[in-house]
Amino acid sequence: MFALLLRHAEAQPASESGRDEDRALTATGVRQAEFLAGWFQSAAGSRYRPAVVYVSEAERSRRTGAIIAEALNLPLREINELHPDTTPQGMIQLASQALHRKEPTLLVGHNPNLHVLLDLIAAGTPPLSTGELVVINSAAEVVTRVRAPER
């Protein structure tokens, strides 16, 4: 089917706690996530509408995924394989499983791991910007890339 790789939306440069995992989305980041939720509901994006949204424990990933999951009434699941400090191996297995499911799966993660994964699947693909989605099919081809328009 389709694996949907999404780099979390734009986040604050720092958090009050000082922990990287606690960085919140900016207003632009919220708008990026809302745009993607709307895209999945549009004629262009409806065929890629995910059945489930997987996120890391980092606030910026969780919030990006939550905005989309809430808008589409989807389950939101936090998994360790998407944590910013994990190695790409767990993400590789996760993406492989997503590609073999009957319905699209959305993985909301972080660079550099998403870029490493994307390059392994479709070599030479440019890295994802914050709030950017790439759709990959079971033939390991990039079908489309989607990002909220700049204001």
Structure description:
- This protein has 151 residues and is an alpha/beta fold.
- α3 (88-99) crosses α4 (113-121).
- The protein has helices spanning 27-41, 59-72, 88-99, 113-121; strands at 2-7, 52-55, 76-78, 105-109, 133-137, 142-146.
- The protein contains four helices and six strands.
- α2 links the parallel β2 and β3 (76-78).
- Helix content is 33%, strand content 19%.
- A six-stranded mixed beta sheet has the order 3-2-4-1-5-6, sandwiched between helices.
- The radius of gyration is 14 Å and the shape is globular.
Question: What is the gist of this entry?
Answer:
The chain is of the alpha/beta class and 151 residues long. The protein has helices at residues 27-41, 59-72, 88-99, 113-121, and strands spanning 2-7, 52-55, 76-78, 105-109, 133-137, 142-146. It contains 4 helices and 6 strands, in the order βαβαβαβαββ.
User: Could you say which overall geometry the principal axes of the C-alpha atoms support?
Assistant: globular
The total count of strands amounts to: 6
Alpha-beta classification: alpha/beta
Strand order of the largest sheet: 3-2-4-1-5-6
Low-confidence residue ranges: none
What percentage of the residues does DSSP assign to strands (E)? 15-25%
- Which radius of gyration do the C-alpha atoms yield? 14 Å
Distinct helical segment count: 4
Main sheet: strands, sense, barrel: 6 strands, mixed
Helix content: 25-40%
Mean pLDDT: 93
N to C succession of SSEs: EHEHEHEHEE
Q: What is the end-to-end distance?
A: 33 Å
